[in-house]
């Protein structure tokens, strides 16, 4: 079998990837290209949605990332929700930073922790069925599963 010199390519997000002999992926400087969600109920009427920027190997991309985050009524992530949460839509304490608010209780510009993780805290007595969305490193929309009554404490 011939031994080939590594070649460097860029993925759709402009991230560096190195391929060596046998076309196996060697993790480069930054291969973050997706966003993952984890939903957990918090205290009374609170849903905590952990948003993680992930590498190609599905692990958290340990770096500070800036994301646009919004609530949608559509499983595709299209548009802002028509429903406003009864309480706050913000960062959970010590779980990232809200840099700016585009639309109150609906759309935010956020910064992850150095671990690549941001936790969105939604307080809503109606326990609305929002889809939490985030624009990934390459601008694509990533969408959580729909929040349900059990997603809230």
Summarize the topology:
Layout: E1 7-10, E2 16-19, E3 25-26, E4 34-41, E5 46-54, E6 66-72, E7 89-91, E8 97-103, E9 107-111, E10 117-123, E11 131-135, E12 141-143
Antiparallel strand pairs: 1-2, 2-3, 4-5, 5-10, 6-9, 6-11, 7-10, 8-9, 11-12
Report what the structure shows.
By secondary structure, the chain is mostly beta strands. The N and C termini lie far apart (58 Å). The chain folds into two domains: 30 residues, no CATH class; 120 residues, Immunoglobulin-like (Sandwich). The chain contains no helices and twelve strands. The strands form three sheets. It has a five-stranded antiparallel beta sheet with strand order 8-9-6-11-12, with no helix packed on it. Strands 4-5-10-7 form a four-stranded antiparallel beta sheet, with no helix packed on it. It has a three-stranded antiparallel beta sheet with strand order 1-2-3, with no helix packed on it. About 10% of the residues have low confidence.
What keyword list fits this structure?
153 residues, mainly beta, Immunoglobulin-like, 2 domains, five-stranded antiparallel β-sheet, four-stranded antiparallel β-sheet, 42% strand, globular
């Amino acid at each position: 079998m011939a031994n080939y010199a590594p070649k460097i390519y860029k993925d759709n997000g402009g991230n560096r990837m190195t391929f060596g002999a046998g076309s196996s992926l060697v993790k480069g400087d930054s291969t973050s290209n997706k966003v993952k969600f984890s939903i957990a109920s918090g205290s009374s009427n609170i849903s905590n949605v952990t948003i993680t920027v992930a590498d190609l190997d599905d692990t958290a991309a340990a770096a500070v990332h800036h994301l646009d985050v919004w609530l949608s009524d559509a499983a595709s992530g299209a548009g802002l929700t028509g429903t406003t949460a009864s309480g706050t839509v913000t960062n959970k304490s010590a779980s990232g930073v809200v840099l700016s608010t585009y639309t109150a209780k609906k759309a935010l510009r956020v910064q992850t922790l150095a671990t690549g993780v941001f936790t969105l805290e939604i307080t809503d007595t109606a326990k609305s069925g929002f889809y939490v969305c985030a624009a990934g490193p390459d601008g694509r929309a990533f969408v959580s599963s729909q929040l349900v009554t059990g997603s809230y404490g």
